[in-house]
Amino acid sequence: MAEQKETVKNYMRDCVNDVLNVVMEKVSCCSCEKCRMDVIAMALNALPPKYIVTKKGELYSKLSKLQQQFEVDVMREVARAAELVSKRPRHGDS
Questions:
Q1: Percent of the chain with pLDDT over 90
Q2: Are 42 and 82 in contact, with CB atoms under 8 Å apart?
Q3: Could you give the CA distance from residue 7 to residue 10 in angstroms, rounded to a whole number?
């Protein structure tokens, strides 16, 4: 059997990705790749990182995701970032 290599992952990125499309649509934000990446980067910079390495760590993070305040925080920061990006999109920049 091949041994699986462990990597460090910011689980918060998954959480942001989970709500990204819905929030961007509600804010009427451009969904081009550049705007999406800007929203993700801004939201992640405003949220605390949740680094995981093992499956057990991932399960623990998923349990914490079930907490209502955690979900509200993620959605709030993604919405804030989407509003900022929609006001000043950079997709026209070279």
A1: 55
A2: no
A3: 10
Residue 28 corresponds to which tokens in the numbers above?
């009427």
Cβ neighbours, 10 Å, residue 78: 29
d(C-alpha 68, C-alpha 66), whole Å: 6
Strand ranges inside 1-94, DSSP E: 9-10, 51-52
Is 81:46 a contact under the CB 8 Å cutoff?
Answer: yes
Length of the chain: 94
d(CA 7, CA 46): 23
Closest CA to 11 of 66, 67, 68, 50: 50
CB neighbour list of residue 69: distance below 8 Å, 6 or more residues apart: none
Question: Is this prediction's pTM over 0.85?
Answer: no
